[in-house]
Amino acid sequence: MSEILASASGAGREGQGKLRAQNQVLKKGVVDEQANSAALKEQLKMKDQSLRKLQQEMDSLTFRNLQLAKRVELLQDELALSEPRGKKNKKSGESSSQLSQEQKSVFDEDLQKKIEENERLHIQFFEADEQHKHVEAELRSRLSTLEMEAAQHQAVVDGLTRKYMETIEKLQNDKAKLEVKSQTLEKEAKECRLRTEECQLQLKNLHEDLSSRLEESLSIISEKVPFNDTKYSQYNALNVPVHNRRHQLKMRDIAGQALAFVQDLVKALLNFHTYTEQRIQIFPIDSAIDTISPLNQKFSQYLHENASYVRPLEEGMLHLFESITEDTVTVLETTVKLKTFSEHLTSYICFLRKILPYQLKSLEEECEASLCTSALRARNLELSQDMKKMTAVFEKLQTYIALLALPSTEPDGLLRTNYSCVLTNVGAALHGFHDVMKDISKHYSQKATIELELPTTTQKLITTNDCILSSVVALTNGAGKIASFFSNNVDYFIASLSYGPKTGSGFISPLSAECMLQYKKKAAAYMKALRKPLLESVPYEEALANRRVLLSSTESREGLAQQVQQSLEKISKLEQEKEHWMLEAQLAKIKLEKENQRIADKLKSTSSGQVVGVAQEKAAVATATGQEEASAKAVPEPVHSASEIGILTRTSDSEAPDVESREDLIRNHYMTRIVELTSQLQLADSKSVHFYAECRALSKRLALAEKSKEALTEEMKVASQSISRLQDELTTTKRSYEDQLSMMSDHLCSMNETLSKQREEIDTLKMSSKGNSKKNKSR
What we know:
- With about 775 residues, the protein is an all-alpha fold.
- Helix content is about 85%, strand content about 0%.
- It has a domain at about 245-510.
- The chain has 16 helices and two strands.
- A hairpin with a 2-residue loop joins β1 (about 640-645) and β2 (about 645-650).
- α2 packs antiparallel against α16 and α6 packs antiparallel against α7 (about 335-365).
């Protein structure tokens, strides 16, 4: 709804802006046309006045000419009449002829003046007529242009009116759609309100239930939990975290990829330093022909030692990779091998600092050579700047890696909150290293092409330059791969920093991390020692059936508690009986010993040999409790008698008078009684185990119910949040819809006003153009 309103408002604003611009253009055109029409009206008035004056003069002149023509005719008639009379009366009319000649001369002069005046007036009339025709032609051309412009303006106005009508129709359609949507949204809002009320009731009930359970759990925790080892960070750091095999495998995979990239980078660095040493030996002076400068000799000597500084980088990364196994916990506090890699990188940076001045001086020596051109000198200067940047980038990278190695050696060296910042800076440094290597590759390729054009370039120098270029390209590719690899995994690195003890901020010190690893090894060994072959499990279908029976059981908790209480009472009674019969057995054993002693004393008087034999036999009978077969002799017709300790099977004194048979009977009786008691005890134990299993199943069922209840509470929270969000969206859409409607109504009113004004202006223009055309036609 908001998107539709936004699109409608955007379309309305765009149409309104276009209409305003077009209205302004039309207003300017109308004002200009009005000014031009006013000027033309004034010019027409002046021309009409001048034409009227000229017409009046023409009328007066024509009238005067007619008068003069009539007078001339009269004079000619008089002259014709006077000539015959003069012939007849020559004599008498000499005096009169003189008078007529004078009059004729006067008339001739007057006529000549009138003719000249008439000629002058004819000239003025011709000039005025020509000027009038010229002005009329100009006005007609101007009128035609104005009519064309008026037609164009009329076409523009018609197009605008059509557009306005189309936009009005679109806006009306949008308005109808928005009204329909508003009605649907109102219905949805009502439904959401009903749902919110229901959810609020459920939430209230769940809140009450959860609060009561929370109180119970808090009381149980306060009474039963003696020590909370997660309360203090010092103790929590010693807890073994949950083993995350996927995390360890991912870290080992990442370390393996980093090892491969570092190996490629080390190989490229070795090639770069080696081929640079080879180039110094042959350029600018070939060592096979002449001795090179002491500076280059020292530089070559240092470059010859590059393997002792570059190889340890690969070894340190290999040790770091080997330290990350599936059984360890990989965090910054436990990666001790990162410190050795940082130390190897520091030694390599010392090597770069040592060779940098010699490299810069070597490039200056190449620039001072006689065959060095200005372009080659510029490339050497750019390469010197690039070498400085390369050393600076390595120093920056070493600084951040040394910071990352601090948590495994010094606990206060780097705060845990700064881990993410340091990791992002490492990624930025790697990208900077890639950019520097791209510049070095570009400038060195330009230098190689310039040196290829020199006349003194040898084939050995060309091959050496090609080798250096290949090593620089390999360095560029390796730097780009490492930078992209680190930027792709930096989010995982930052997220994996929280992998550690539960509900803690991490390990306090490297010592605590080491102790945790030792505890982890001990725990793994203990779990391995406890590992036993699994017994045959219950089939899946049977387990599902048992689970359904367990979940569908309708026994109440109180009934199960009563059964458990009864079983406990029975077990306590059986224990008491067991103790009682053990005491009885001890008493019987003591009596038996006394009886044996008494019989032995009696038999001593009769015969010493028999007494010894009888004593040995009785001792053997008293000690050998497991000889049940020897004691089970056939006794004829036994007599059973019941007592408090059970059923005693005995024979009559007349049939078994001897002592041994009586002792055997007593022993057999007690043994059978003990067997019965043990069987009863085993039965009680089996019942107690059964009751314990039932209680455990009920507790699991209760736990499942609690989990489902928690899930329902979370769903209720999500539903309440969605309901509140929908309410907010509904209010915002209503407000925006009302604002849009008000804006649309204002816009329509303004459009109607502008259309009415434009129509009035067009009507006035039409009327003025019609009046002008009529005046021109009349002229």
